[in-house]
UniProtKB/TrEMBL annotation:
Keywords: Hydrolase, Nucleotide metabolism. This is dUTP diphosphatase. It comes from the Bacteria. Pfam families: dUTPase. Belongs to the dUTPase family. It is an enzyme of class 3 (hydrolase). It catalyses: dUTP + H2O = dUMP + diphosphate + H(+). Its EC number is 3.6.1.23. GO terms for biological process: dUMP biosynthetic process; dUTP catabolic process. It comes from Sodaliphilus pleomorphus. GO terms for molecular function: dUTP diphosphatase activity; magnesium ion binding. Residues 12-138 form the dUTPase-like domain.
Length: 139
């Protein structure tokens, strides 16, 4: 599958994979700033053309554990119709250094999704779990 990208600045870096078997493409910070809320914004300065029927999911990289940051929306969703810049907005919880220009800060996974239609019914089929929710499988 080909995905078109548009670099919005000279500092933008095309996403890469460290290994051919990796699911995610590393996203690079082309610039890093803080917003009025004290959040750390990592800009990619890249826009993507995700094909229809697909979604781009932006997850933090596992190396985020070396920082005091967390992605504010946990997982970013890039819909196929979105053509703006992809960036990560992070909440800083402590004093460990935030990301800098050139750092890999997130990973992009592109997935196909099904065409779904919701059908309202009076009853749902039974299951072994039923409506047992939080903690229903033990501690």
């Amino acid at each position: 599958m080909e995905i078109k990208i548009k670099k919005l600045a000279e500092t933008a870096t095309t996403p890469t994979k460290a290994h051919a078997t990796d699911a995610g493409f590393d996203l690079y910070a082309s610039r890093v700033e803080r917003n009025d809320y004290g959040q750390v914004i990592c800009h990619t300065d890249i826009a993507f053309e995700i094909p229809p029927g697909h979604v781009g999911l932006v997850f933090p990289r596992s190396s985020i554990c070396k920082t005091s940051l967390s992605l504010t929306n946990c997982v970013g969703v890039i819909d196929s119709g979105y053509r703006g810049e992809v960036k990560g907005v992070f909440r800083q919880h402590g004093f460990l250094h935030p990301y800098r220009q050139g750092d890999r800060f997130a990973q992009l996974i592109v997935m196909r999704y099904p065409d779904v239609t919701f059908v309202e019914v009076n009853e749902l089929a039974g299951s072994d779990r039923g409506d047992n929710g939080y903690g229903s499988s033990g501690q």
